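User: Second chain of the day. Same drill as before.
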Amino acid sequence: MKYALLGDIHSSVEDLKDVLNDIKKQAPDAELIGTGDLFECIISKKRAPFERFNKLEDVMLYSDELIDMLSFPSVRGNQEERIELITESDEPLLLRIRMMEERILIEKTAEVIHGHQWKWGGDPWMPVFPETGPDLIFYGHSHDSGLTIDRQMEEVGFGVPYSVRKGRTFVNVGAVVGDRNWVLYEADKGTVTFMKVIG
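Assistant: Same format as last time:
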């Protein structure tokens, strides 16, 4: 089974269009899964604890075109959490955001999580990975494509398959917004390939 993982879209319609078109060309039979931050919340983290809104249009960027393209399952990112926190409404889209899971399992062996739940720090800015859990975890949040195997960061290139069977593996799928990056996971082969829309 093939999976196309994409996230950190931040409401960018044009970047998402390009990535979805690339996925159709490169892996038309792949199942799409989102790593969160599909939407862009326009209320800052500093304001969020003190303000409440009655309409989604006052707290986030979105359009009908964007919603139509977001037809795949996704975990909840920090943007979705903030949107949910500050909006009091019965709009269908908000109900959908509230239903987003924190984690999605792939074939009972791999996990998808946004990654904002972990502690981050250092240079380069990296998460403190959890000690327990599946041996393969896909995440986003930092917008930087990356591969960490048994706590060692690996140098990665685009279009090159990397084995995810060499140890406990964390795959940062990168960002759709700005970078137009995504990851192809071929479960049967045990590989991930970092992909980037060129042009």
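The chain is about 20% helix and 30% strand.

User: Great, on to the next one.
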